[in-house]
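Translate sequence into structure tokens.
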Amino acid sequence: MEVTIHVKYCTPKGTEADFQSAALPINQAIEMAQGFQTTGRVMSLYLKNQLGQELSLKELISYQAEIKQEPHNITIYFDGGFDLDLKLAGLGFSIYYDQNDRRYRLRKNARVTEITSNNEAEYAALELALKELAALEVHHQTIRIRGDSQVVINQLTGQWASLDQTLNKWADRIDHLLAKSGLCANYELIDRNTNREADRLASQALKDVAIDALIELKAE
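Result follows.
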């Protein structure tokens, strides 16, 4: 999660001014807010998360201690592919997250029916990843979602309109899952090379090679 700092500051001569920071990671925001307070010139200070909720510095520090024990700092990579001959879709995703000062990577895939296009497979892969977040009890934070599907990313960010009712229903399902868990998504369109891990998982699913793996990533 990132937050902005909102400060009303008073100079030694009594001049008042309001300041708002750029969006900052929690630890940086806490450090900077504490720095403001040591000046003794702060008339008011609060922080606002990307869901629009206002927090005091004390509440943010408490939240940081609480979320440390839960999966956070989450990035999802997703990909999906549809085999027209087999009438099957392969879905793949990886989730990177922090928990208790450790970094993890979760990789999963699935082979599914009842999907009729590559675009549907892409949406289904993202839906599968979000359902996994729900199983991990991830809630009320900002997550990063990265994929190479221009259709999915641009439709979910509102850059592209869609007249396809099937894809619109998929987009609604994604929005519903996010809202249900109180998640705010930052979408990023990446190239296929950057997304090769999720692409490989989707391809393996089409070959009926099931992957379900969680590892701890060692610090470099």
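Note: The chain has a mean pLDDT of 93.
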